[in-house]
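Entry, Tuesday afternoon. Goal for today is a structural model of the target with NAP bound, before we commit to ordering more compound. Inputs were pasted exactly as handed over by J.K., no edits. I checked the ligand SMILES twice against the vendor sheet because last time a stereocentre got dropped in transcription.
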Amino acid sequence: MRIFVSGTSSGLGLHISEELLSQGDYVWGIGRREFDIEIIRKSGQENFKYSQCDTTVYSQVKNTFEQMVESGFIPDIAIFCAGSATEDIAGNDFSLDKLRKNVEVNLLGVLSWVELLLPHFLGRNRGTFAGISSMSTFRENHRKRIGYSASKLALNKCFENLRLEYSDRGVNFVIFNMGRMTKTRELIGVSYEKASRLIVNMLKSDRRPTVVNIPRSQFLLTRAAELIPEKLFRRYLMG
Ligand SMILES: NC(=O)c1ccc[n+]([C@@H]2O[C@H](COP(=O)([O-])OP(=O)(O)OC[C@H]3O[C@@H](n4cnc5c(N)ncnc54)[C@H](OP(=O)(O)O)[C@@H]3O)[C@@H](O)[C@H]2O)c1
């Protein structure tokens, strides 16, 4: 399969790319930094293409998209891992500019790719968009960031609407609400390695998932935490 992955230069996007390459898929990844292809395991390097592209700069997105089309690389699945959790609150100050950055990466940086890829997916009645969101859309647990969960929640709602519009034309929009992710397994959360395996397997299955919460244990805790009054939650459960 051909898969587009945003935010492939580190964290979840890198692990998902490696998982896909190990399964023999072709991956086109993007990120802002220069990326040393040697980071990718030798066996997968020839099926991997990387473009330096800031997903908030439309001209760069369009240019990368045009390169993909010219190379005949219309993905079967597009996975959006690029994310921003920039602090937009500091002391007495709230910065609209910093909030805007969260919205531009987490929401608009996904939708600009949807705008470009959707006609191709509809043209062949097939394709999956996968948005990487967060469990903080259920119970807020971030301090100093008012734009992070808000932009992720907006993404979830956009994908819900897009599903209503297009899922009967063969195009699916999946949201993965992720809990805490770490390099190695810890008590709460999930390792990048396990998360990427679960996401890839789910996307390749015939189940046509819509909303997936990973890991399940943290999802149950998060939903239970919604029952705790905000005042108590803030005082006793937030750092
Ligand atoms: N880590 C967690 O515990 C956690 C929990 C819930 C949800 N999530 C979500 O899961 C996703 C992956 O998280 P992560 O932990 O893997 O994050 P990460 O390690 O910080 O990786 C983020 C990736 O996004 C890319 N990126 C950021 N801004 C970009 C832009 N403007 N244009 C293109 N690429 C951009 C970065 O590459 P460059 O720096 O090269 O641009 C990097 O590859 C994010 O959407 C995050 O919000 C994470």
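The chain has one domain: 2-236.
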